[in-house]
Amino acid sequence: MTVQAHTADRRLVVLAVLGVVLALTAAMWTLAGCAPKAEPSAPAASEQKDGNGGSSAMDGQPVNWTMDSDCSMCHTVEAASATDASCPQASAHEAEGVTCVQCHTDEAVLSTEHADVKFGDKAATKATVVTVDPETCISCHGTMEEMAAKTADSTALTDDKGTTVNPHDVPSNEKH
């Protein structure tokens, strides 16, 4: 009977230990599920909501875009490139105080493109229409031939084969 008592005691101890392990495991899973999660990065300005954890009261309201609107409020990628030293074209425009609407001058096209934009909408990731008249570029930078001569020594652009190309000396065809 002593052997049976020890066996029964061992079984009870094993069951008690197993019960405690299961209870601790369940508690840890519960706590881990409630633990704060690390965020990969702060959301872009265009994705941020108000500080109350919900949508902004302005979400869904028309933006009422005008030529005086602050483009950087929605076009955050372009705004960031304007101050990025690795993007000399954009940062040079920024340094000279050139605003978006000095080059993007076609108010009718821009107004149409922004007509249905509402606060809280996801900003466009790329331009959907060309709104810069080539004559606008030429007025500050000169003709493509003049720009090609000015950038003949540039090594900033390479094609998909690794060949350095002058972005202003490209063949003229339906794609360019």
Structure report:
The chain is mostly helical and 176 residues long. 42% of the residues lie in helices and 0% in strands. It has helices spanning 2-34, 76-81, 88-95, 100-103, 107-114, 134-141, 144-150. The longest helix has 33 residues, at 2-34. Residues 33-53 have low confidence and may be disordered.
List keywords for this structure.
7 helices, elongated, 42% helix, 176 residues, single chain, mainly alpha
Q: Briefly, what is this?
A:
The protein is mainly alpha-helical and about 180 residues long. It is built from seven helices and no strands.
Q: Tell me the helix content.
A: 40-55%
Q: What spatial form do the alpha-carbon principal axes imply?
A: elongated
Mind telling me the C-alpha Rg?
A: 31 Å
The main sheet comes to: none
Strand content of the residues, in percent? under 5%
Low-confidence stretches: 33-53
Spell out the helices and strands N to C. HHHHHHH
> Cα distance, first to last residue?
97 Å
The structure class reads mainly alpha
Mean model confidence by pLDDT: 75
> How many helices?
7
The number of E-state strands comes to 0
List the helices and strands and how they pair.
Layout: H1 2-34, H2 76-81, H3 88-95, H4 100-103, H5 107-114, H6 134-141, H7 144-150
